[in-house]
Automatic annotation (TrEMBL):
It comes from the Bacteria. The keyword Thylakoid does not apply. It is a multi-pass membrane protein. Its main location: membrane. InterPro entries: DoxX. Keywords: Membrane, Transmembrane, Transmembrane helix. Pfam families: DoxX. The chain crosses the membrane at residues 6-24, 123-141. This is DoxX family membrane protein. It is found in: Membrane.
């Protein structure tokens, strides 16, 4: 693959690191105290309650609503772990697949909000490109340890 300035693998690493920084910003901008006190899950519950797809309402009621504090921790620290994993290139395919899953969940929940759709759609697209482009091959802990090819 021909590329300007960096190799193709290095450009994919730039994409991966940028996505990791995006996840870290998502984690950083949350008011963790209020998020862990329930504000984030309460906000999502309001959205899920009005969702046009019954499966989303039912899934939220069965999985998230009974354990709001646990789910608040899961979301908050998943975003932190994804960001660190992608910036450092540690367990890169796992972080990319996890991020893709989280973005698809966010996309599904926020089907009515075009601003959220744009952000999550772009993050999902970057995840797919970085995953199938094997972006952990350059500038990563995975490469230093000889993991994933």
């Amino acid at each position: 693959m021909d590329a300007i300035w960096l190799t193709g693998a290095q450009w994919l690493a730039v994409l991966r690191i940028g996505l990791g920084l995006w996840w870290l910003e998502s984690w950083r901008h949350k008011d963790r105290r209020s998020w862990l006190a329930g504000s984030g899950i309460a906000w999502a519950a309001d959205i899920a309650a009005e969702h046009r797809w019954p499966a989303v309402r039912t899934g939220f009621q069965r999985v998230v609503a009974p354990r709001p504090r646990v789910m608040a921790y899961v979301v908050l620290y998943a975003e932190l772990a994804l960001g660190l994993g992608l910036v450092l290139g540690f367990l890169t395919p796992v972080a990319l697949a996890g991020g893709l899953l989280l973005n698809v969940l966010y996309l599904t929940l926020m089907i009515h909000d075009w601003a959220e759709q744009g952000q999550n759609g772009m993050m999902a697209l970057i995840s797919v490109v970085a995953l199938f482009g094997m972006s952990g091959q350059s500038w990563s802990v995975d490469a230093a340890l000889g993991l994933f090819g």
